[in-house]
Amino acid sequence: EPFLPFRYHDSTLGAAFADVAGRHADRTAVFAGTEVSYAELAGRAGGLAARVSATAAGAPGDPQGNPVGLLLGHGADMVAAILGTLAAGRCYVPLDPSYPPDRLRAMADQAGITLLLTQGRHRRLAGATGPALPASSVVDVDEVGQAPFEPVPVEPTRPAYILFTSGSTGRPK
User: Fold this and answer.
1) Which long-range contacts (CB under 8 A, 24 or more apart) does 25-33 make?
2) For the chain, does the N or the C end have fewer beta carbons within 10 angstroms?
């Protein structure tokens, strides 16, 4: 069958993904120009989860785990970053690199982002986006190695993501 039925109604996304990735490691999880297997996606997400946890642990003013900004284009890196951020027990904020820097800065400020995951090609935009993050709080996903995917337990009421809309104003809210 081309798609797997979803059997995880009483589970977190991280736990469900870990189970599927473990049982179907060689199957294609994402097709974004090239095929990415569940095993590879789990390894990427695991590496990002470890980096998010390690970076956030030392971030000043981040005792509760502020949202993580994902300044990434569509594709396997975004999927791995979403899974990795959730596996680290954090909330993510998607930041589309096609948006103007002022819009991205407003979104990052409103969400209280203290950690930003991006790609090398968006590094300059990450610097213009703000908030003023120390260099150690801007992580290039291309430089993060693979690690086991081990999601941490989270409270079911904890938000998974923050999504901004602009409605008719053109300003993110």
Assistant:
1) 29/79, 30/75, 30/76, 30/79, 32/74, 32/75, 32/76, 33/75
2) N
The DSSP letter of residue 136 is G
Task: Look at strands 68-71 and 92-94 and give their pairing.
Answer: parallel
- 59 in helix, strand or coil? coil
Extract the tokens encoding 11.
């589970």
What span, in angstroms and rounded, lies between the C-alpha atoms of 5 and 159?
A: 24
Which range, of 36-45, 129-138, 158-167, averages the lowest pLDDT?
129-138
Q: What is the DSSP string of 3-48?
A: S-----TTS-HHHHHHHHHHH-TTSEEEESSSEEEHHHHHHHHHHH
CB atoms within 10 A of CB 3: 5
- For 27-78, the pLDDT digits (tens) are 999 998 889 999 999 999 999 999 999 876 555 555 457 899 999 999 999 9
Per-residue pLDDT, averaged over 88-102, amounts to: 91
Which tokens go with 130?
């703000």
Q: What is the torsion angle, in degrees rounded to the nearest 10, for the CA atoms of residue 99, residue 102, residue 106 and residue 112?
A: 90
